[in-house]
Specification:
This protein is α+β, with helices and mostly antiparallel strands. The chain is about 20% helix and about 20% strand. The strands form 7 sheets. Strands 6, 7, 8, 11, 12 and 13 form a 6-stranded antiparallel sheet that branches. Strands 1-2-5-3 form a 4-stranded mixed sheet, covered by helices on one side. Strands 16-18-17 form a 3-stranded antiparallel sheet. Strand 19 and strand 20 form a beta hairpin. The longest helix has 19 residues. The two termini are about 35 Å apart.
């Protein structure tokens, strides 16, 4: 195994926090990645898989385990059984934005609104990344998964991953273990072959973000360029010269609440209905059917509300920082906690806890962190 001299996680994460792990393995091929993980699991070691480090908040203490860095890359274009579509099988360590750039260059549509999201392709399905109305669940076909319980590689369909709003069965939610432990080796997407012609944009969220009128026609390249510019204005595209980008992106998730709770929030709070799960089919055994069919249960769909709006209207404005702290909210985006220069993980955690407390006191809602937390608690 290609064991290497361990680097501090602060050098490998976009939040720039984290101590030195006990051991580190760099996996440049799928075979190396599989062998490394089987070795670590066989030893019973504590382990951490690291891709781009853009969705990780690591504590200040050394990590007493093995960090496996996923450095695989490559895109394979394959035919699709659906006319007018193409499939891309992409290695887990491939840079996500590089994949989007490739798709746009090839005239393939379906992920262009997710331009500029940092991180690797293998991490994308774990939290069902999305932006401006596009989510990976819309184009994901399957993943190759190395199962942590068996050490076996299998092909798992998108339907088996429990993909929801910024979640999946593979995600380490704060305070709980994933429902299914494993590591993604490759991802297969199915994208529409539309070429480079202009076309109308169906999604209202994307049209609004880009200032497009309904029916206005643009190319996928135009969308990519303007999404990147929009994200740069918010400090959400990595830039070594801009401390506002020393973050894990949106630190808190937009909250999904019941319709009744959403009505307790001010009318000005931005909100979006969440598509409800399909009701299960009602089956009544023929021998017990008496002619009465109970009415279908009706329930208003849940509502997604803007965490950024809640933070700002709880009195925590862009650029806010606690006294003598080197952690601050981004000056451009109220959802991004940023490292303004050698901030400790505890300084960032203290700021996160303060924000949670303010929002809870003002609106009765506890915001949940979006990054994976390792060695740190809120």
């Amino acid at each position: 195994m290609p064991h290497v001299e361990p680097l501090p996680l602060a050098q490998l994460t976009t939040l720039r926090t984290g101590g030195v792990p006990a051991r580190m393995i760099d996996a440049h091929t799928t075979d190396q990645l599989v062998a490394a993980l089987r070795e670590v699991w066989g030893d019973g070691d504590e382990w951490l898989v690291l891709g781009g480090g853009s969705n990780l908040f690591a504590g200040d203490e050394p990590f007493d385990g093995t960090v496996v860095r996923v450095l695989t890359d490559g895109i394979e274009r394959m035919p699709s059984p659906r006319p007018g579509f193409a499939r891309l099988r992409v290695q887990a360590g491939h840079d996500w934005d590089a994949l989007v750039a490739y798709a746009v260059e090839q005239g393939l549509a379906g992920i262009e609104a997710m331009s500029g999201i940092p991180g690797t392709v293998g991490a994308a399905p774990v939290q069902n990344i999305g932006a401006y109305g596009q989510e990976i669940v819309q184009t994901l076909v399957e993943v190759e998964l190395l199962d942590a319980s068996t050490g076996e590689v299998s092909t798992v369909s998108a339907a088996e991953l429990g993909l929801g709003f910024r979640t999946s069965v593979l995600k380490h939610h704060y305070g709980s273990a994933p429902l299914r432990a494993g590591v993604i080796l490759s991802v297969t997407l199915e994208l529409a072959e539309i070429g480079h012609a202009e076309r109308p944009i169906a999604g209202a969220q994307l049209r609004t973000a880009l200032g497009l009128a309904e029916g206005q026609r643009v190319t996928v390249a135009w969308i990519r360029d303007h999404v990147l510019e929009t994200r740069r204005r918010k400090g959400m595209v990595l830039d070594p010269a801009d401390p506002d980008t020393y973050s894990a992106g949106s630190f808190f998730q937009n909250a999904v609440v019941s319709a009744s709770f959403a009505r307790t929030l001010p009318d000005e709070c931005p909100r979006w209905p969440v598509a409800p799960d399909l009701d299960p089919v009602l089956v009544i055994p023929l021998e017990s059917f008496d002619g009465y069919v109970p009415p279908a249960e009706t329930r208003q769909p849940d509502v997604k509300v803007s965490a950024a709006w809640l933070i700002e209207h709880a009195g925590v404005s862009k650029g806010f920082k606690l006294p003598r702290s080197r952690a601050a909210l981004s000056s451009k985006h109220a959802l991004a906690l940023t490292n303004r220069g050698n901030a400790t993980a505890e300084e960032l955690a203290e700021l996160a806890r303060f924000i949670q407390g303010r929002v809870q006191a003002e609106f009765g809602l506890i915001l949940q962190p979006e990054p994976v937390l390792v060695g740190v608690e809120l």
